Amino acid sequence: MEENMNMTAERSLEIITEQIAQSRKAVSKSTGQSLYVAGFCTMAMAMAVAIVNIIAMNNGFTPIGHLLWFLLPVIIWLAMRSINKKQAHAPVNLVSSLVGKTWWTFAALVLGFFILASLWNVLIIRWLSSDPTVIVSQQVAITPVIILLMGMSISITGHILKSKWLVWFGIIGSLVVAVGDYSGIMGAILARISSIHTVGIWHNVSPCLSVFLFALIGLMLPGLMLKHQK
Amino acid sequence: MFQPLDPLLHSELRLAIMSLLISADEAEFPYIKEQTGATAGNLSVQVEKLSAAGYIEVEKTFKGKRPCTICRITPKGQEAFEAYVQALRSYLQPKG
């Protein structure tokens, strides 16, 4: 682009439209990159948690691999920081700020819910069950709730970026995986392929499978599509 | 009646810079360079002209250990851009 002062009005309008569209595209690409990286890290973490749980339970320990989930936000942040250092930042505008705030809210809700639900499931239920006068409440299903929250965030991101398929990826993907996990379909599939000795181990691996599947459908694939959209 | 066009904005590169910044809160220099396809030298000159006119503000900071230049449009720049678009309309509207 040069310092051409003899532009027509049409050419001026063309430049304005072009640059505004490019700005929007850059934000979409950058969001796609973030979704892709988050998806990749989540899938890798789901595999790591599953492997640690299998090893731990085979050696008589509790499924301590789930503690690794706390590292996920740190790993995603480090990965994003390393990528951002290498390339020019997408501009900060209303769209990128809304997308950022949506995912910040998601992260805060998930972290808070994960800590409270884990406390309830591990400590309070154990304490209540030791008192025979109290009826023990049901355990909180952590994975489907997190997947539904993630689906909602993906869908809102789709609305902000005006990407219909991202909206539907979020809604359909999260519903299928969350219902599959909550209804026990995922567990039933794992139980079918496991023996009586390994069914307990697979039970602790099934949330990892749900998260892995949703990270693939809801984060990595839409991220890849946004990154490569024309 | 044709309205006069702001000569500072009626240049391809400066208009492109302003159009990028009008839809963003802020943008880094390498991003503007990438989007406009301009050379760093030419871009610096044009950014300086817009900054001198008070249309944009330039912040020199650091990103890690590397220097980083951030550009933002000012309220005066927004007004000038709006007036420029308004003036463009008078050239495009059919005479009746």
Give an overview of the whole structure.
The complex is a heterodimer of chains A (230) and B (96). With 230 residues, chain A is an all-alpha fold. Chain A has one domain (13-227). Helix content of chain A is 77%, strand content 0%. Chain A is built from 7 helices and no strands. In chain A, helix 4 (142-160) packs parallel to helix 7 (199-227) and helix 6 (185-193) packs across helix 7. Chain B has 4 helices and 3 strands, in the order H-E-H-H-E-E-H. Chain B has helices at 12-22, 29-36, 40-52, 75-92; strands spanning 27-28, 56-63, 66-73. Chain B is an alpha+beta fold and 96 residues long. Chain B has one domain (12-87): Winged helix-like DNA-binding domain superfamily/Winged helix DNA-binding domain (Arc Repressor Mutant, subunit A), CATH 1.10.10. A 3-stranded antiparallel sheet of chain B has the order 1-3-2. In chain B, a hairpin with a 2-residue loop joins strand 2 and strand 3 (66-73). At the A-B interface, helix 1 of A face helix 1, strand 1, helix 2 and helix 4 of B.
Q: Mean pLDDT score of chain B, rounded?
A: 88
CATH class wording of chain B: Mainly Alpha
- CATH superfamily annotation of chain B: Winged helix-like DNA-binding domain superfamily/Winged helix DNA-binding domain
Q: What is the count of DSSP helices of chain A, taking H or I runs of 4+ residues?
A: 7
Structural class assignment of chain B:
alpha+beta
- Low-pLDDT residue spans of chain B: none
